[in-house]
């Protein structure tokens, strides 16, 4: 695929790429989707190049799908990375060597690249990546155990996580990440996992119920011995409304 | 300048530009810095191309300065715009015709361009733009009276304004935009102008004082006939602290 792109580079936007940070949550675990590239045994974010005839938002979907088989994920652009030193020639030359392309013919790849970051948050049990290349490994890796990544991918990942944390103050979260019926402690755990810190139980309860997106069900969680916690579900309509207008505890 | 870039295009990142949305506030007015381009008498955001040897954040500063003479402004990247249709050939060809460059030699300009948006908020009385080209007009224009803009610049401007409004929920604002001593109603007016809506007086007072960035002074505004309002100033140290950590009325 990469060889095809380099050899048909007039079909791709020059000097511009897209990298995707796919966060996966399930059962109090926050993971990130990473690919081990064959040429140097190092890990990377799933990324690629922008077809000249595709909007960048569409290209992000295409690239994610081509690299990982993942589809149906809502990707949000969060930042563009453009330090001059972010892609050194060393990296590009290694790739060319691996693909058996001469430096002259592979000049397109070793030019300066700016990359646009997209991110998503999904349930990692519902999204099954599939390997697209022999020798390529795709894995959900715990966000605290991320190995060394190529180029500036660690910086891109960190920025995406930071954006996700800020989003918690602006948007509701949890739909599609929790079972249909859940307890407040389960929802709190989701927030704690993403924020990587403990939250005060009462404070959380007050704030989350104030948003008005929860429906208290007439059921209790029944596998708990005693003092069974109440079950809740999201009020889909209100959830969508808040998603559209923002939490805006604002001004 | 543009002619120089097209003729020396190997010194610039291909297919990538930067556009700056500079908001100016003073005395309850919110304006935006626009340039009238000579070749077709239409208005545009100050923008330009990325020197191959500059980080994109540095290039944004360079571009703003080269187009408008403005410097010392803190630019924040907010989004990248990359619809295929955003720059039609029509526009590029007009520019080439105006600059008397053949379509063949000007191919660099008529390629597909993706643009990175940066924005800033300043006091428009403190920032004096200077014209860099004969025939070019630079003006602070009220954000509600923005004329038709080239390309997708209106969309870029709208997105920047939306980002600024969201930022009000995340960051303190007002330092450098208000006189050193100000009243709460003056501060509230700043918020109302940016948000383009009336805010409840008591609610605003409660929220703004809760942030803890204001120092109540032992003075009153003395040009007011009766019931003179109290004067406040920003507690610079706390302001910086909140700027760093975010308002985070969060979780």
From TrEMBL, chains A, B:
Gene Ontology MF term list: hydrolase activity
Transmembrane domains' residue ranges: none
Residue ranges annotated for the Nudix hydrolase domain, each copy included: 15-165
PROSITE patterns tied to this protein: NUDIX
Domain of life where this protein originates: Bacteria
Name of this chain's protein: NUDIX hydrolase
Keywords: Hydrolase
Keyword Hydrolase assigned: yes
Pfam (any one): WHD_NrtR
């Amino acid at each position: 695929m990469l060889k095809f792109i380099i050899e048909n580079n007039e079909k791709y936007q020059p000097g511009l790429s897209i990298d995707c940070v796919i966060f996966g949550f399930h059962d109090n675990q926050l993971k990130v989707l990473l690919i081990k590239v064959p040429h140097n045994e190092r890990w990377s974010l799933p990324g690629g190049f922008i077809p000249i005839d595709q909007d960048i938002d569409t290209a992000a979907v295409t690239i994610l799908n081509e690299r990982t088989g993942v589809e149906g994920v809502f990707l949000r652009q969060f930042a563009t990375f453009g330090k001059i030193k972010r892609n050194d020639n060393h990296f590009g030359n290694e790739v060319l060597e691996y693909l058996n392309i001469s430096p002259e013919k592979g000049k397109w790849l070793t030019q300066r690249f700016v990359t646009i970051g997209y991110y998503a948050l999904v349930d990692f049990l519902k999204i099954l990546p599939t390997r697209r290349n022999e020798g390529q490994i795709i894995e959900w890796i715990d966000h605290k155990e991320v190995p060394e990544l190529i180029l500036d991918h660690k910086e891109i990942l960190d920025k995406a996580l930071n954006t996700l944390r800020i989003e918690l103050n602006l948007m509701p979260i949890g739909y599609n990440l929790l079972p249909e019926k859940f307890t407040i402690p389960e929802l709190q755990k989701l927030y704690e996992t993403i924020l990587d810190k403990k939250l005060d139980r009462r404070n959380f309860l007050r704030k989350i119920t104030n948003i008005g997106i929860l429906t208290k069900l007439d059921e209790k969680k029944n596998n708990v011995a005693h003092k069974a916690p109440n079950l809740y579900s999201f009020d889909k309509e209100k959830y969508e409304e808040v998603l559209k207008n923002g939490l805006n505890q604002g001004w």
